[in-house]
Amino acid sequence: MFKHIICPTDLKNRSDMAVKKAIQIAHQFGSKITLLNVHEEFMDKGEREMLRVSVNKMKEKYKQVAFESKEEMKAVIHQFHADDIEVDYLLHSGKPEIAIVEVAKQIGPDLIVMCTDGRNSIMDFVVGTITEHVINASPCPVLVIPNRK
Hints:
50% of the residues lie in helices and 21% in strands. It is of the alpha/beta class. Helix 4 packs parallel to helix 6. The relative contact order is 0.21. The model has no long low-confidence stretch (mean pLDDT 85).
């Protein structure tokens, strides 16, 4: 039923519950998982030039952040004993709510599994949460795992 699952993660403990659930589903259905980590801080070349930031220094910094993020994602999969599952590790730049939907439209998963804290700030009530945006724009079903604090 679910052959391909996207699981967005911010590499914080709260995301672990969603990763665990994605792993459970993957074991049940023989699914492939794409772990997606989105970085808002990554700027494109034009933005770096406008800020007069050294392009080469920023490229090196981004390369280091990307490497560390990918290693953290691999560690999470290993920690949850899911080395037997096919996992793609994907890093993306931009706003998470937009990037998650864009990636889902590009790779066509059967399911998105993500965690939410709910509305915990005034901005969440005004503009909505990342999860709300993904649910409203997703091309596939979204399984939301509440974060029990």
